[in-house]
Amino acid sequence: xxxxxxxxxxxxxxxxxxxxxxxxxxxxxxxxxxxxxxxxxxxxxxxxxxxxxxxxxxxxxxxxxxxxxxxxxxxxxxxxxxxxxxxxxxxxxxxxxxxxxxxxxxxxxxxxxxxxxxxxxxxxxxxxxxxxxxxxxxxxxxxxxxxxxxxxxxxxxxxxxxxxxxxxxxxxxxxxxxxxxxxxxxxxxxxxxxxxxxxxxxxxxxxxxxxxxxxxxxxxxxxxxxxxxxxxxxxxxxxxxxxxxxxxxxxxxxxxxxxxxxxxxxxxxxxxxxxxxxxxxxxxxxxxxxxxxx
Length: 294
Ligand SMILES: [Zn+2]
What we know:
Elements: H1 3-15, H2 18-48, E1 53-58, E2 68-69, E3 72-73, H3 74-90, E4 96-98, H4 108-116, E5 121-129, E6 139-143, H5 146-163, E7 167-172, H6 177-180, E8 186-193, H7 197-203, H8 206-293
Parallel strand pairs: 1-4, 1-5, 5-8, 6-7
Antiparallel strand pairs: 2-3, 6-8
Helix pairs in contact: 2-8, 3-8, 5-8
Zinc ion binds at residues 59-60, 66, 74, 127.
């Protein structure tokens, strides 16, 4: 800063009246409130972690059999795995809700409505697969969001590791209504192909069903901390945006206050100059009249 700049700086500083200083104090105070709010929210989100509810959705049911091969109904297998998964999660004190507990028909929309009625929740839809090419076997998991992908990755790995069938990997399934209508992390697990004779026989056993349930449970347990972190990051990001917006608003307010101060100062100076100008005019008029007389 050169000397001219410095003197300009000093002049500007003189413009800061008590009103402007009050404004600065206000900015600092609101910053403190935001820092406190951020800390409070992060503590709340860490505390909320263990309270995450799991909505288990046994696919199909009632008049909707799902896949049907050699008298084996997919809807029944889905419910069997879902109830085993429920027991495992309840043993860990994790709150659980099943979209159906018996062989009843519920719409896809009703399943999503149940999931969306909770604040902190993940959604796991349990299915078995079938294909006209009866040689096809394996497990696959669908997702429709980044959070769902994280959950799907862990569940797929853990289930395949236990049931030891072909890994058909995770797949993006935005076309699945239960996935794209759920506002929470959501997955759809296809636990095996009942169209393949050998796999169907395995799928019907309580042992295979328990391995699927344990795999899904392990996948959920691994995902919970990472999902909480994602949620916390999102919340802090939103808080940052609010803080930035507030900062812009406060800067605008300070600028306006400064302008008002400058206007006031200018007005004051003009009022001071006015009488001098008037006096000068009177003097000049006097001189003119004297000259006129001479
Ligand atoms: Zn199905």
